[in-house]
Amino acid sequence: MVQEGFEIALATNDSTAIAELSRSPIDLVILDVMLPGRSGFDILRDIRQLKPRLPVMMLTARGEAIDRILGLELGADDYLAKPFDPRELTARVRAILRRTSAGLETPGSESSLTLGRMSLDLKRRRASIDGNPLELTGAEFRILQLLSEEKGRPVERRVLTERALGRKLTLYDRSIDTHVSNLRRKLERSDQCGIEIRSVRGTGYELIELDSA
């Protein structure tokens, strides 16, 4: 990927990877599931402890759907099945970096959103409830922002996939559902946060601001 203009730091084991993340300004991690020693899932847990919002793309073996689901549940932003076209990997990386640097803001848009007891800082891409940080991955934040901006209106899974993940929704792709499930769990840990993400059968999801908020 050097020829594509990216500066690459290669880590061959978990300790090297974590040390590199601790001392260097890394913008994105490409993490293989199958590694010598500890698995990519174990390393992903460490990354999320160290840098909760750092974008992580998992590489998984073809046909191993359970790997992709587990990776997303542990906080990966996206996944790519092996073998893959290097051009697709480059396109995915560029899409993630664009979303990370620019967020979902458009000219004239608000710099923050407040729903119930939750606040979204759109410029810094931070979420909080009653002032307490809500640790979200980049993908989770973008989904939450999209649902918040369409409060009370269903948002199609296709739209969420395209705008939050930067790719087309394909058959059997359940990435959005996994990200939403993670979001729900994090919101539920904050007692009576004043919002709820509801499934809309045959469509997608909608965010509701509860009356008790």
Topology, pairings included?
Layout: H1 14-23, E1 29-32, H2 40-50, E2 56-61, H3 65-73, E3 78-82, H4 86-102, E4 112-115, E5 118-121, E6 126-129, E7 132-134, H5 138-149, E8 155-156, H6 157-165, H7 175-188, E9 195-200, E10 204-209
Parallel strand pairs: 1-2, 2-3
Antiparallel strand pairs: 4-5, 5-6, 6-7, 8-10, 9-10
Commentary on this structure:
- This protein is α+β, with helices and mostly antiparallel strands and 213 residues long.
- Helix 3 packs parallel to helix 7 and helix 5 packs across helix 6.
- The protein has a domain of 102 residues: Response regulator (Rossmann fold), CATH 3.40.50.2300.
- Helices cover 38% and strands 21% of the residues.
Mean pLDDT: 87
State the order of secondary-structure elements, H for helix, E for strand. HEHEHEHEEEEHEHHEE
- Give the class from helix and strand content and strand pairing: alpha+beta
Low-confidence stretches: 104-108
CATH topology of the domain at 1-102: Rossmann fold
- Strand arrangement, major sheet: 4-5-6-7
What gyration radius follows from the Cα positions, in whole Å? 17 Å
Number of strands: 10
**CATH first level of the domain at 1-102: which class?**
Alpha Beta
Question: Which superfamily, in CATH terms, is the homologous superfamily of the domain at 1-102?
Answer: Response regulator
Q: Gap between N and C termini, in Å?
A: 48 Å
Anisotropy-based shape? globular
Largest sheet: 4 strands, antiparallel
Number of helices: 7
Helix content: 25-40%
